[in-house]
């Protein structure tokens, strides 16, 4: 089965992202707005049981932190993806690194760029138009992150939560 690890921001941030995703992101129906901590990877039940123990430990050692979003950016020329740029944060980077070492599969394909996708798979002209307009918008979003989720992919391609891990919580 395919799994992934992500942070779901607050409803306010999700509503802001979804106001664009409805129109510009074909994955809108497959997963809510999120910050990816670990790209999709394959694992069996035994491996997931081991990883859940590690994820509980990581969550317990992490304190809630605040992220800031001040602008949009894109992955052009690699892809015509537009995203809300999450400003660099040490705790976010540490979480990402912890989920790519030890028992976790090291499936890094790209450098870690914390973001929330708001548009993807856009045609060149549409990308230029949408990105040009979005660049002029001023975003001043702060959000407290206090958990992450282990997700699994359903047969229809959508993602659902397997388990949530709250920061600083003692797991038995």
Automatic annotation (TrEMBL):
Record EC number: 3.1.-.-
InterPro entries named in the record: 2H_phosphoesterase_YjcG-like, Cyclic_Pdiesterase, YjcG
Residue span of motif HXTX 1: 34-37
Motif (HXTX 2): 115-118
Gene3D superfamilies assigned: Cyclic phosphodiesterase (3.90.1140.10)
SUPFAM superfamilies cross-referenced by the UniProt entry: LigT-like
One Pfam family from the record: 2_5_RNA_ligase2
Alphabetic keyword roster: Hydrolase, Ligase
Enzyme class: hydrolase
Active site (UniProt): 34 (proton donor), 115 (proton acceptor)
GO-annotated molecular function: hydrolase activity, acting on ester bonds; ligase activity
Taxonomy, superkingdom: Bacteria
Record bears the keyword Ligase: yes
Entry-linked HAMAP family: 2H_phosphoesterase_YjcG
Family, similarity comment: Belongs to the 2H phosphoesterase superfamily. YjcG family.
PANTHER family: PHOSPHOESTERASE SAOUHSC_00951-RELATED, PHOSPHOESTERASE YJCG-RELATED
Name under which the protein is recorded: Putative phosphoesterase SAMN05216225_102534
């Amino acid at each position: 089965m395919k799994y992934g690890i992500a942070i779901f921001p607050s409803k306010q941030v999700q509503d802001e992202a979804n106001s664009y995703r409805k129109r510009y992101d074909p994955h809108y129906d497959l997963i809510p707005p999120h910050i990816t901590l670990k790209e999709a990877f394959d694992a069996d039940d035994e491996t997931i049981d081991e990883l859940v123990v590690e994820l509980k430990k990581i969550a317990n050692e992490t304190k809630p932190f605040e992220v800031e979003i001040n602008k949009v950016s894109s992955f052009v020329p690699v892809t015509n993806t537009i995203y809300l740029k999450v400003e660099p944060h040490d705790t976010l980077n540490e979480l990402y690194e912890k989920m790519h070492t030890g028992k976790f599969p090291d499936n890094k394909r790209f450098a870690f760029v914390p973001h929330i996708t708001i548009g993807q798979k856009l045609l060149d002209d549409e990308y230029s138009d949408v990105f040009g307009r979005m660049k002029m918008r001023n975003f001043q979003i702060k959000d407290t992150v206090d958990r992450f989720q282990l997700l699994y992919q359903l047969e229809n391609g959508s993602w659902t939560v397997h388990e949530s891990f709250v920061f600083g919580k003692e797991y038995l």
